[in-house]
Amino acid sequence: MNAGKSQKAAGEVVDHWAREMHAIKTRRDQAAFARLFDHYAPRVKGFVMGAGVTAEMAEEITQETFIAIWRKSHLYDPKKATVSSWLFAISRNKKIDLLRRETRPTPDMTDPAAAPDAPPLQDDLLDQNEQAASLYEALETLPEDQRETIRLAFISGRSHTEVAQQLGIPVGTAKSRIRLGVAKLREFLEKKDKDIGA
Amino acid sequence: MTKVTHHFPDELLLDYANGSLGESWALAIATHAEMSSEAQRVIIAYEALGGEMLSRARAQTPNDKTRAACLAAAAAENTIAPLKKHADASAEQREQDPIFPKTLRRFLGVDLDGVKWRSIGGGIKQKIIETRDASVARLLYIPAGVATPWHSHRGNEATVVLAGGFYDGDMSFTRGDVEFTDSTEPHQPRAMEDGPCITLAVTDAPLRFTNILPRLVQPFARI
């Protein structure tokens, strides 16, 4: 993606994939699925390999992820998740299934048929694509130690305890970096919500 | 619905979102999140961040075989899955009036009325949940007004309230709340007076009881 583009333009690019997902979901559009695969499968494979998974296993995770995308496209709700965050969540779950032989207890937040016990999310407050993009921008503005600790947690797929070991810092330091960084991200989102709600 | 006020710390929600938590802890967090819109919001935000990082990952082109397998699966399953009607689903849910959130019900295969409890003394009952990680997940049933034995920890402990509520020191916890402790300070949760308190509790390491009696029971109760 072109870094020079405005936020709105970036949002439109992401919206393109939400439209492709819509075609997959409502029309079982195989050509759209092939385009989604060609754009995102290399990123899924690359992201999974970045977390230290072998190329062979990454290949299998990628395949399982995209078959799940096709089979479960009726559960995709663009109001609740961007296409990339859905891919992130599904590939993470497939990785857990394949590597640990554990099941992933996952709340059905994207399932329209599930009536969660909690009050419904106010998902209309902020467009998900815009929120994801601005959250990433906000992450970029954090102090380096907080930003890199949080980023490493995602890139490596490791726990904060393991991230602390990898960085050679005490676990307590990793915890406080994450808490401080996340507090700033939360503040940022709350401010956004207020701006939009006003 | 009472607002959930006690949450998991950020670093654990991050561990949950990036998939590094074991099954027991993931179950506790998923259960809490289904009762707390705030926790859902945080997890959704983390997954969005993860998605942004995935979008920016260094691309590794998959094998042609993988691509062919995915497209073949799509061609073979080319029907539109019937969408469940939302109204029907919520009507069904109301009818059953479940106590446990959906993830926990699915994990156990039963709701509260189907739990096979084992008495561990003092009116307290437990049900160990089979998980495939080193931590221990259990359901606890504490009668109204009853206090659990004083205990301390060697690792983390999380207690998610499923029904009723409890006090610990000057803090109170009701449905959806989680008490998370990583300290070695002994504590003694006490169920509220208005009914039994049912919780999902996860511990990293066996608890240490400060009384002699629970210590004798401990090897058998897997506390």
Characterise the protein shown here.
- The complex is a heterodimer of chains A (198) and B (223).
- Chain A has eight helices and no strands.
- Chain A is mostly helical.
- Chain A has two domains: 91 residues, RNA polymerase sigma factor, region 2, helix turn helix motif (Rna Polymerase Sigma Factor, Chain: A), CATH 1.10.1740.10; 70 residues, Arc Repressor Mutant, subunit A (Orthogonal Bundle).
- The longest helix of chain A is centred in the C-terminal third of the chain and has 27 residues.
- Chain A is globular, with a radius of gyration of 18 Å.
- The N terminus of chain A is likely disordered.
- In chain B, helix 2 crosses helix 3.
- In chain B, the strands form three sheets. A six-stranded antiparallel β-sheet of chain B has the order 1-2-3-10-5-8.
- With 223 residues, chain B is of the alpha+beta class.
- Chain B has a single domain, classed as Jelly Rolls.
- Chain B contains seven helices and eleven strands.
- Classes of the chains: A mainly alpha (198), B alpha+beta (223).
- Chains A and B meet through helix 2, helix 3, helix 4, helix 5 and helix 6 of A and helix 1, helix 2, helix 3, helix 4 and helix 5 of B.
Give a topology summary.
The complex is a heterodimer of chains A (198) and B (223).
Chain A: H1 7-27, H2 30-50, H3 55-71, H4 83-100, H5 128-140, H6 144-156, H7 160-167, H8 171-197
Chain B: H1 10-17, H2 23-35, H3 37-55, H4 64-76, H5 86-96, H6 102-108, E1 118-121, E2 124-129, E3 136-142, E4 151-152, E5 157-163, E6 165-168, E7 171-174, E8 178-181, E9 190-191, E10 197-203, E11 208-209, H7 212-221
Antiparallel strand pairs in B: 1-2, 2-3, 3-10, 4-11, 5-8, 5-10, 6-7, 6-9
